[in-house]
UniProtKB/TrEMBL annotation, chain B:
This is HDOD domain-containing protein. It comes from the Bacteria. Gene3D superfamilies: Hypothetical protein af1432. It holds the Pfam family HDOD. Residues 17-211 form the HDOD domain.
Amino acid sequence: MTDPTLPRPASPPPASEPQAAVAPADARQQQLFRHTLRESRIHPLAPLLRRYRSLRTLAAPNSDEETRHA
Amino acid sequence: MLDTYGLSQLPHKVKDLPVLPQAVLEVLQVLRNDNLSAEHCIQLIEKDPALAARTLRLANSAFYGAPGRVARIADAVSMLGLRTVSGVLAAAALTQAFPASACAGFDFAAYWRHGLAVAMSARSLASHCGLDPEQAFLAGLMHDIGQLVLAAHFPAAGNAVQALMTSTDVPRVRAEQTLLGQDHCQVGALLAVHWRFPAPIVEAIAQHHAPPPAAASAPAALDLTGLVHACDAVAHALDLAGLAEEAVPEIDLSVWTRLRLDEARAMRLFASVEGGVRDMCAALSL
């Protein structure tokens, strides 16, 4: 049971869904390129992969929509 | 260096490995530009039910756009092309030569997923580099074959390498050199010579982690070794092997410059390799 003396949040926590969807992908990308990042360098493939993943993320909802309508 | 893991036996072990099945050797002659007719290739495949089944499964995979419509080997060869079929046969033969049961503690499926990703990436970029696409496919598929030799025939060495990679997060090739005094590139090249692969493929296997500098006679050209080196990095970056500890290897800046991979080409490459690996792994039951 919730303690009624505890302050209740005035509003729901900030919407975190979009961030939560992106953050694991970013974390994985950092994990994949960790050997170069450790030396404070940028792997030439890293920006291209980031761009590719963001394009895929943008395209994904449309694909789901198309699948549902198919 | 002490021979803690018995690697002095390596040349003998490699010589004792079975040669590739005759059917595959004959089909591989295509990659050496020998004269092998499509009819002969079809006959060789039809003689081996397992190879026939794999060839049909691949031709019917979504990747090749005709799911469920190809029922004859002749149609499959015509659709896939003689050289793609030879690449598939090589993959099939290799999975038989190194069954998963012989590679305890080694992620066999991850190994093949990565090999296929490098193969497809190399084939996709080969024409852009003025190289033969199907030779590039085979070189990509075989580039890490030394890892399988170590896992299957020197499991203590393979486990020690894996443990060092995990504990210190160093790249595999460095862990191998530290512990064994040699790496999977050298081991793989030994096997590639034993299996009579074409010289450019042997070189690509031997040097894919340390590509030679550009030739003075053609400073802008990228050779097969450089292409496999770059595609190895692409495949690791696409994260298709399914390994938690995956890491993208360094890419030689001279190779990267000569690859001339602009953003549009890179986006198409990544999408085609992701889709292709998924479908080919399904076709090969990997």
